[in-house]
Write a structure and sequence with these properties.
about 230 residues; alpha+beta; six-stranded mixed β-sheet
Length: about 230
């Protein structure tokens, strides 16, 4: 890990559908290339209905970015699982991949990817707080033995003060308002780090194609060992 740490980004790409209602995977890849990230957690990377084909072509990712797709998908057409996908800068290795089933009325899941310096959990939490609390509890149990953990994703929590009490052992960062991209008024997208890690800088990308590529803006955080 460099002096600045690793840059972790999170982006709900809304299946590559922009504010102009066009599906434009190339536009999403432009945004990803501008993040200067080492690790990217994507939400809504796959279509909603079975067999859940990806919204981002693997060949395009390989040809037009410096990222590799972590093999999370459990079929041949999806990029991730429950829409959660993880991209790593080429050359970064990963270890065990764990699928975490999340409770709730809606089908939700999270994915844990063990990296050299921490375990990353990529997730997209539910719309109702009572279920989000249960989902966060399930994530906390799934990483209980890990020394260092980063949880990144669309937390779907509108309140800056409530709803994340389960993550009492984490430092939860909302880098800024990331939703709605046309008029950002809510910090739905967040990055949480466990003890042993520190966020050295963080932000929201609100310029260029990110302003209209999805209904969310991407967030990022430079994370190092505390």
């Amino acid at each position: 890990m460099s002096d600045k740490g690793l840059r972790v980004a999170s982006y709900n790409i809304r299946k590559a559908k922009g504010l102009d209602q066009r599906r434009d995977p190339g536009r999403i890849l432009q945004v990803l290339n501008g993040l200067d990230a080492d690790v990217v957690a994507l939400q809504e990377a796959d279509r909603r209905l079975a067999p859940r084909p990806t919204a981002l072509c693997r060949a395009m990712i390989a040809a037009e970015t410096d990222f590799e797709v972590v093999p999370i998908a459990r079929n041949d057409v999806s990029l991730g699982w429950h829409g959660n996908a993880v991209l790593l800068r080429k050359g970064l290795g990963h270890g065990r991949i764990t699928h975490i089933d999340l409770p709730g009325l809606e089908p939700r899941g999270a994915v844990r990817v063990d990296l050299d310096h921490f375990s990353l959990v990529a997730t997209h939490l539910g719309l109702m707080r009572r279920y989000r609390t249960q989902q966060l509890r399930a994530i906390a149990r799934a990483v209980d033995e890990a020394e260092r953990v980063v949880v990144a994703g669309d937390f779907n929590e509108w309140s800056p003060h409530k709803g994340l009490e389960v993550l009492h052992d984490f430092d939860v960062h909302a880098p800024g308002h990331s939703f709605h991209a046309a008029r950002p008024i809510a910090a739905l997208d967040r990055i949480a780090v466990s003890r042993g890690l520190a966020v050295r800088a963080a932000g929201v990308v609100n310029e260029g194609p990110a302003r209209h590529a999805s209904d969310h803006l991407p967030i990022w955080a430079d994370i190092g060992v505390a």
